[in-house]
Amino acid sequence: MSGSPRQDIRSLTKADLEDFFLVRGEKKFRASQVYEWLWRKSIRSFDEMTSLSKPVRQLLENHFSFCAAVPEIRQNSGDGTVKTAFRLHDGLLVESVLIPSRERATVCISSQVGCALGCLFCATGQLGFTRNLTVGEILDQVTGMRDAGSRMQNPDFVNPEQEFIISNLVFMGMGEPYLNYENVTGAIEKITSSDGLGMSPQRVTVSSVGIPKMIKKMADDDPKYHFALSLHAATDAKRDQIIPFNKKHPLAELTEALKYYHKKTARRFTIEYILFGNFNDSVADAKDLALFCRNFPVKLNIIEYNPVTGSGFTKSDPDRTRAFIDFLEHRNLVVNVRQSRGKDIDAACGQLHLKLKT
Length: 358
Ligand code: SF4
Hints:
By secondary structure, the protein is α/β, with parallel strands linked by helices.
């Protein structure tokens, strides 16, 4: 077919759809039907809109396209973790990870194809940035992973009588979510609204490397979801070495934005800290982290590193990890320790993509 590409139907608002039908002599309520198929039932083709007549479906197909993200490559880990690469309409790939715990699971999704920030420990950072994901492509990862969970055969994981539940959704996959702010917040709206998937915003976490001006914007928008800061080093001297973005926006600027967030929202946020062996895992590093945490009420997630080939970073050894955590706990900080999952399947986001490229 020649001419300009047809518009992705999921970029339209409900009002846009109403106008579309009204100018063609169709009833306005068709827009509500279509909207429900798109966002609540999250179908991925016009043919699936079975409550619409064939001519109406054809009308939509003549004017719009369906830019869906389709699950293509799946890797299953021995520990139950499932990683999926989704093929986008333009041939690009993004990754999502499902981390099960009996009939529930945490799903980690991507917000961009690649990432411009180039953090040195991160597989996605080695890819560079290609483009932002749309609201529809972000939502497709959620429904695609939910469906993957429902089909899993592990009897310890899914009770066939029960519906599969995503207990937590984290934006911790490929990309920096706050550099795709409009689409990420638009997707969260669809994921959490009664017009969409109806998931509680309390179960959604956006994890960011910490873009000061976007933290302030997010605070002004009064989000109902959780915010997590990927800190990984609590001094500029160390953070500059692993997160190039920190050189332009050092910790003083980040701290000021985080204080603003706390003042506006009165909410506690999470600080994520990956432990890299002999880099940021000494008791002196723990002391720096405790000092940073004195600025606001926080919860700490200490994360075991899932090594990325060629990064030069390794995981911390158990004795250093224990001493690091003990120090923080003695300072009365709330500390959760997260083991890395899916080590046998390159589950850190960007790893599968990187492997497919090479
Ligand atoms: S850690 Fe996050 S912000 Fe840094 S390069 Fe990876 S995806 Fe981008």
